[in-house]
Amino acid sequence: MADDTVGFIGLGAMGGEMARHLVAKGIRVQGFDLRSEAVARLAAQGGVACASPAEAAAGVSALVLMVASAAQVEAVLADGSEAALPPGAAVILHSTVPPSFAAALGARLEAAGHPFLDAPVSGGQVGARDGRLTIMASGSPAAFAAAAPVLASYSQKVWRLGDVAGAGSTVKLVNQHLAGVHIVAAAEAMALAARAGVDPGLVFEVISTSAGRSWMFENRVPHMLARDFTPLSAVEIFVKDLGIVLDAGRERRFPLPLAAVAHQQFLAAAAAGLGAEDDAAVVKVYEKLAGIEVKG
Predict the structure, then answer these.
(1) What percent of the chain has pLDDT over 70?
(2) Active-site amino acid positions
(3) N or C: which end of the chain has fewer CB within 10 A?
(4) What gap in Å lies between CA 107 and CA 114, rounded to an integer?
(5) Is the pLDDT of residue 141 over 90?
(6) Is 197 buried (19+), middle (13-18) or exposed (0-12) by CB count in 10 A?
(7) Are 89 and 62 within 8 A, CB to CB?
(8) What is the rounded CA–CA span in Å between residue 216 and residue 184?
């Protein structure tokens, strides 16, 4: 096993940038993605192209998983990557998954001798590109030690949230609750401004210097104004993530009315065929209902 070899599965908008930072730090990266063009891009940057999850996991000191869902995590592990892991190799999970899933997976891998870090990320494609992600992590001291040089390559802050997997994913679902509600609130407010006949571009400038602003307002409203819905984070991501939030609320008998309303708006956008567009496209639900367009 090479101490400086990392396997990386999931080379999408964020994962590809994260893997690029690892390569730039002189770490040998073996990458796999279902999209051949993503694997080819990593190879062009100096990484090693792999044809399967098992190949990406062979001979590594750590395996990074940056896929979209718990189902995809299980799929890549079952498709040979877990079996191919060398003894003692760590697994770093960056995907947004239910806390119960992260806890169960962590217990299973730790029992098999693989330190496991439950480490969801925040910062989006821009944060990944700039190497300034925030990582919400929980796991054993051995997992943190094994993951430290990997995480340092693409993060600005690593929060240590406990010794047991699941805590990191719990904090991430709180973040996604707020993020999803804020995007929908921004879309609703901007659509209201357009319906009232006020220039949306001017409203954006005013609110950006006023108490009603949020990070999501300042980041997503420009997508709406430019009519640029290139998916940096897709509508379907928030259908999934707010679904995780609502499931957690049900498990704990805790009401989440704001999350439920936001989830319904993202579901409406997905039902309208907008699931693969940027999450800011949730504004189109309001535009369709009101016969207006939020445009700068």
Answers:
(1) 99
(2) 172
(3) N
(4) 10
(5) yes
(6) exposed
(7) yes
(8) 9
**Full set of structural domains in the chain with CATH:** 5-164 (3.40.50.720), 170-290 (1.10.1040.10)
Q: Is the pLDDT of residue 182 over 90?
A: yes
Whether the CA torsion 97, 99, 101, 103 is positive or negative: it is positive
Over the stretch 71-113, which tens digit does the pLDDT of each residue have?
999 999 999 999 999 999 999 999 999 999 999 999 999 999 9
End-to-end CA separation in angstroms for the chain? 54
Give the helix/strand (H/E) hosting 138.
strand 133-139
- Rounded to whole angstroms, how far apart are CA atoms 8 and 33? 9
Could you identify the residue written with the tokens 């940096």?
A: 232
Q: What share of the chain is helix, strand, coil (3-state, %, to 5)?
A: 55, 15, 30
| CA atoms within 13 A of residue 286's CA, in its CB half-sphere | 22
Contact, 15 vs 153, CB < 8 A? no
Using CA atoms, how far apart are residues 68 and 237, in angstroms rounded to an integer? 8
Count of beta carbons in the 10 Å neighbourhood of residue 84: 19
pLDDT digits 0-9 by tens, 231-260: 989 999 999 999 999 999 999 999 999 999
